[in-house]
Amino acid sequence: TVDGTALWNDILETARFGGTPKGGIRRLTLTEEDRLVRDWFIAACAALGCTVTYDSMGNQFARRPGTDDSLPPITMGSHLDTQPTGGKFDGIVGVLGGLAVLRALHATGHETRHPIELINWTNEEGARFAPAMLSSGVFAGVFTEQEALDKTDRTGIRFEDALVGIGYRGTEPCGQHPVAAYFELHIEQGPILEAENRTIGVVTGVQGMRWYEVTLTGRDSHAGSTPMTMRADALLAAARMIEAVNEVALAHGPDAVGTVGLIENRPNSRNVVPGEVFFTIDLRDPDDAVVERMEAAFRDRATAIAAECGMQMVLERVWDSPAVHFDPACIDAVRGAAGSFGYPARDIVSGAGHDAAYMARITPTTMIFVPCAGGLSHNEAESAESADVTAGANVLLRAVLEADAR
Amino acid sequence: TVDGTALWNDILETARFGGTPKGGIRRLTLTEEDRLVRDWFIAACAALGCTVTYDSMGNQFARRPGTDDSLPPITMGSHLDTQPTGGKFDGIVGVLGGLAVLRALHATGHETRHPIELINWTNEEGARFAPAMLSSGVFAGVFTEQEALDKTDRTGIRFEDALVGIGYRGTEPCGQHPVAAYFELHIEQGPILEAENRTIGVVTGVQGMRWYEVTLTGRDSHAGSTPMTMRADALLAAARMIEAVNEVALAHGPDAVGTVGLIENRPNSRNVVPGEVFFTIDLRDPDDAVVERMEAAFRDRATAIAAECGMQMVLERVWDSPAVHFDPACIDAVRGAAGSFGYPARDIVSGAGHDAAYMARITPTTMIFVPCAGGLSHNEAESAESADVTAGANVLLRAVLEADAR
Ligand SMILES: NC(=O)NCCC(=O)O
Ligand SMILES: NC(=O)NCCC(=O)O
């Protein structure tokens, strides 16, 4: 089993890189805070005898040799980047839980057949550079490296420039790294495990998700002297579309969700009727066909709203990550490991996207969930119990060893 | 009469300070661009033999002596600051039209009894520091100087620091400057004069206007794993309130207007259900009682929406500028001047706020409007005809001379 105290200490220690007054973390990818936690990651893994490298997308790999080093590594991983006002657990538990596994192997001198690698993926959140899971996506061949390097944040900074800026653009081409399997430990980020008093979620897959960008162009005009009937108010049109996203999600059943998370209003001045609005949409459902129907329903609604408000509309789908089904053998390994420890467990589908969703395209993959308080995530108050995190890392350890033995 | 060509050249020449690719101006108050146009103003007025001073709010005064210099000055003025994406005429026509009057007096050596002063008011737009007409407000005793100096822009910079930063914090205390009358030339910023083919608007007053700030606090959560029923989505609540502002304005008659011009969404990330939104509201009507009823109606709607969306709401009225009625003698002077030139004219109430609205509290005041294309303002495409601007400046000249003769 892993050292739960050391794992918890690692969580608290790394939380200072971008720590916020409210107890959360602001560690957007490829910022100075990200560089600091990456440096910490190298030191921590090196202290356990691992070799740490990084590839051309900045993904970090900490390698513990196997007895047969010609075999591809069994990998574990997640991400150390956060949302602008993120918590201390999202992604972090997976990386530091993997570190706890390496520490347990190191402490006992346990030899594995395969090398074991721990991966810290770049830009999982998609908060700075859309879409999410960008670098595991390149690794898995979903995106080309060039399109990823050319992504820009909302201030226009290129991914590549930011990556070079923090000194983490490696020479190993992203994707040319063999892997035998991939396991990812993560907080659930939803309410189910806690509500049912389960310690472990055996993750069978990830729901389908799509992202959209909408630009509405109306006409800037004076808020005082422009009659209501002569306006082309882009923010009013956006408000109607935000309501439409909500209605479309509610209309498509119990699991469907729809969110407008980001909005930019122009010129954003108190006495100017807004002439241009940019906003994003996130639609998800475990069933890709439902996502497809939601998109169609929203497109109809948006077209009608744009017409009634006198808007030019550009509505673009910028990301499509279909539903993922994880590897049955890996799922069994996790289920078995949870059972062997006697942890209460249940199968679960992930509502959030994860690097595992892309890794599943190229290698046997699954995930392990642990509960978080109130199902709250992407929030500075995100919280998890040390005992649950330890349990998750124990399951990770045993699942990895089982995969190694296969 | 004024030199219309010189006036038009001044408009084009000053448009380069903050000029935008789309032909508009971005010259937010107390920025480097504002400093440059203020320096230009001093040089231009000095070339006409005027003495230029500025007070503790940065208001600039260009003084042409009268034959009886113990008399308080007849004043003209407007502002040289713009919206973030403003036009070349809003405010500018009033300052440069006043300059054209000074030039005409200078060229003919015409002597006036009173000194004649041209004023460039600081922060009329209210785009950087709310509310609008801040410095004429201090001048007229509506706001204390200290509260004005302590205002902050949306990035937290204090008014006083910005004023000192561009070198325009004067030693003359704002408001201790005697005035005998105030005339302001401005583009209409609305559609009426153009639609009726009138060259001159004889402005009888300014409608009532109020500004509000709303902060909604819900709960940040994960866009993928938070069921629709467990959300406290601050942007969805804001969207409903934006719709409510629109409905309230439409329900309160032909003249009422209501606008949400500025919105800030937090954390503003694609995959986070927004936990906090800040937005502003602008409500106006020529009848203060209607504004009052709109406020009450919106408060009811907002309270209900906040409850249904699980929001904490802080709704604050941050500005109240009641309807203004200008001085009958000044209005007559403008009407008479327009008639003497044979310009087609009509009485009109201003939909926009102007420094004249505050000057009317302390001195006989009125305004002169000229048409602008399509009634469009607070837009980079704002446009006015040279002939109309010249006509407005001619009326300004004659009204000032009549006030001097009174
Ligand atoms: N785990 C996680 O929060 N990932 C971000 C990608 C998503 O939006 O689901
Ligand atoms: N003239 C003008 O646009 N002033 C800004 C103040 C207002 O919002 O009416």
Describe the structure.
Chains A, B: Belongs to the peptidase M20 family. The structure is a homodimer of 406-residue chains. In chain A, strands 1, 2, 3, 4, 5, 6, 14, 15 and 16 form a nine-stranded mixed sheet that branches. In chain A, strands 7, 9, 10, 12 and 13 form a five-stranded antiparallel sheet that branches. The relative contact order of chain A is 0.18. Chain A is 35% helix and 22% strand. Chain A starts with a helix and ends with a helix. Chain A has helices at 4-14, 32-46, 92-108, 134-139, 145-149, 159-165, 192-195, 234-251, 288-308, 328-341, 355-359, 386-405; strands spanning 51-54, 60-64, 74-79, 116-121, 181-187, 200-206, 208-217, 221-222, 257-259, 263-266, 272-273, 276-285, 312-321, 324-325, 345-350, 365-370. With 406 residues, the first copy, chain A, is an alpha+beta fold. Chain A has twelve helices and 16 strands. The model of chain A has no long low-confidence stretch (mean pLDDT 98). Chain A is globular. In chain A, helix 1 packs across helix 3 (92-108) and helix 3 (92-108) packs across helix 12. Bound molecules: N-(aminocarbonyl)-beta-alanine (2 copies). One N-(aminocarbonyl)-beta-alanine sits between chains A (90, 124-126, 132, 189, 352-354) and B (222, 224, 271). One N-(aminocarbonyl)-beta-alanine (URP) sits between chains B (90, 124-126, 132, 189, 352-354) and A (222, 224, 271).
